[in-house]
Design a protein that fits this description.
- By secondary structure, the protein is an alpha/beta fold.
- Helix content is 27%, strand content 16%.
- It contains eleven helices and 16 strands.
- Helix 2 packs parallel to helix 4, helix 3 runs parallel beside helix 5 and helix 7 runs parallel beside helix 10.
- It is globular, with a radius of gyration of 21 Å.
- The N terminus is likely disordered.
Length: 441
Amino acid sequence: MKKFQRLSSTFFVMLVLIVFASCGNSDPKETEISPFSNGGEERNMIVILSDMHLGADLEYAECKDNLPSLEKLLKQIKAAPNVKELVIAGDLLDEWFVPAPIDTYQGKDQADFVQRIAAANKGVFDALNSIIQEKKILVTYVPGNHDLTITEANVDLILPGINQKRDPELGLGTYSPVGYPEIAIEHGHRYNFFCAPDPISNQVIAPGTILPPGYFFTRIAALHVSQGFPQAGDTVPSVTQNTSGDDSQNSLFAYWKMWEWTLKTFKIENKFDEKVIVTNVDGFTGNFSVNDVLPYQATSGGFIDVDLYNGIQYSWSQRQVLNHVPVSIPVQQAIAGSATASEMDGQAKNQYFLNPDSEVRIVVFGHTHVPKMEASNNHKGLKSIYANSGTWIDHNGLDSTAMNFVVITPQNDDPSSQTYVKLYSFKNEIVAEMAADSLQL
């Protein structure tokens, strides 16, 4: 097998980084920094990492070159006397970024798959397990979309003793450190139309599946990379907006537009009717073609239909209920917003800060791979802070936005004490502060 080149990101970020060329607060300050020291002896600091995207085969895994640096940072965290918690906010394991023709489980099962990930990334898993086993630092895992279907038992198989914070439903979780209900840490994919669990679609084809359409996007995009960024082997069939003006048809047209953009951007050599996507994952069996997931239309202006994910535009409201989304997102906004980091960042405000039922004032998401920090006022007029923990993939498209992490240092009993939130880069194995802010809880 020839050596694979790597894509700039997983599905969501592949969209984001091409649309956006920069993000606020992304220029590190080149200073000598001790990110895991609070200046005292108390062990109270909370470190958040996300989007490591560790793969079972380093020929195509998105994190390979950065593995030694990640291992080094984990060893620094373990040695730090002030770190109390390490939170992994999703996409630790990558079940999605696998070139379409590859059988993800190689004829075996998910347990074997995650053990192959642990073997391929042995240094990182040795470091994580060392922290867990020492029991000085609580290590918590929250699922993301790329490890959406990885079960609790299989995470525990390779990280025995890790604290897992999950919703009752597979694929989601939100974590508030003990004693800090004002802090919420989650991956963020539950608010994304293409990446949130979908327990409604395809149940006849794949009973019990929760895989959303972003899974198929990513399999195709990974094929684009593995084929060396080829010219397109086929043309996306034209679909025009339905003349009826029906809201559902308008939503399906917007869904098609996203597919059109993706297939024109991440070209593959294959014809769209070739059964090139090998699944055998989460209830899916056999092979599928691009045409199976691409909306189509018999006549211009006529009815738009789709095979896989048929009716997905109708089910978005119900999906949000099942996925415990507090503030409903309109379907057109959700489809269009899935291509922007700003929409995901905005959901931190909408779901938490502006939600009158929420008292959360610090939110940390991953998912977008765009590290940032932003302050705003909540529904009570109190200062609140949102941070995105970035990514650890090798090629993120933006030179300064790899190897990121967030550190929260809670306030103490002093009436003037503040809770600090800081965003860092570990690029070139040098810690650099990218953004910092504070508030009083």
